[in-house]
Amino acid sequence: MRTLFLSLLALLLPAAPEPAVWRSLAPGMDLGVFAASRPSAVGDSRITVLRIDPARWDLDLVGQSRTGEAAGRTAKQWSAARGLTAAINAGMFAADYKTHVGYMRAGGHVNSGKVNGYQSVAAFAPRRKGLPRFRIFDLDAPGITMPAILQDYGSAAQNLRLIQRPGRNRWGQQEKRWSEAALGEDDRGRILFLFSRSPFSMHDLNRELLALPLGLVSAQHLEGGPEAQLYLRTGGVELELYGSFETGFSESDGNNTPWPIPNVLGVRPRPAK
């Protein structure tokens, strides 16, 4: 009887409120800024998280090969030009400065048709009802294949995996550290834009992310060093973040200018029905 009483009491009591670390910017979009538990030796060691509900926001992949532009833009400039509320790197790119490293498709436009060895694929724009509007797939999971993903989803981006579902740190420890822009999925299927200017090894950053109140189940690397970016403008907040440090390339926190990048992953409000 005591167990039954406690179960009924749990149903009747209001749900616990969200932690105060989250700031609501718009319906379905929240901003959180967290301090790393084990600080980096460089910078402020803050991790910024933009949480996005795909039921209220549409994802889009925008870049030079799709627009026909001759040069890249910063995340802020891409947002202004293409009507994006927020934008982050879409992933690493080849020496031609526009072709995605790994497979990338945005609707009918294929930026790169090459499937490489990266084990993480972010997919959205489902082709039929009943599918999650956003999902990060592990290509080495049972029954998961790239052809099946592309059959179900209109847009997809393949990138290096950081965290394997359902929350496993997939990076061994290493000496290399960098500023990081990453894409995550939480346990409610929400999109997470993740950014840290302070450099961490990816093993250490994964550990920090998994310890935060994010419900993080999966994540992929988008970009590191001075090219890593996150931009948003909504709810009275404008935030332009960009990286600096990368071992063996830019070993300082001195970068004070966002770099042009060829491709971004951005969000717009879903049209009202």
Structure in words:
The chain has 273 residues and is mainly beta. The protein has one domain. Helix content is 15%, strand content 40%. It has an eight-stranded antiparallel β-sheet, covered by helices on one side. The chain has a five-stranded antiparallel β-sheet with strand order 4-18-5-16-17. The chain has a five-stranded antiparallel β-sheet with strand order 7-6-10-8-9, with helices on one face. Strand 1 and strand 2 (29-35) form a beta hairpin. The longest helix has 11 residues, at 2-12. The radius of gyration is 19 Å and the shape is globular. Mean pLDDT is 93; it is low at 1-19.
Give descriptors for this structure.
mainly beta; 273 residues; 18 strands; globular; disordered N terminus; five-stranded antiparallel beta sheet; eight-stranded antiparallel beta sheet; 5 helices
Report the oligomer: single chain
Q: Using only CA atoms, what is the Rg? A: 19 Å
Counting DSSP E segments of at least 2 residues, the number of strands comes to 18
Order of neighbouring strands in the sheet with most strands: 1-2-3-14-13-15-11-12
- The helix-strand sequence is HEEEEHHEEEEEHEEEEEHEEEE
Termini distance? 47 Å
In which range does the helix fraction lie? Answer: 10-25%
Counting DSSP H or I runs of 4 or more residues, the number of helices is: 5
The average pLDDT value, as a whole number, equals: 93
- Sheet-strand content, in percent, reads 35-45%
Number of domains: 1
Structural class: mainly beta
Largest sheet: 8 strands, antiparallel
Q: Uncertain segments of ≥5 residues (pLDDT<50)? A: 1-19
**Broad shape:** globular
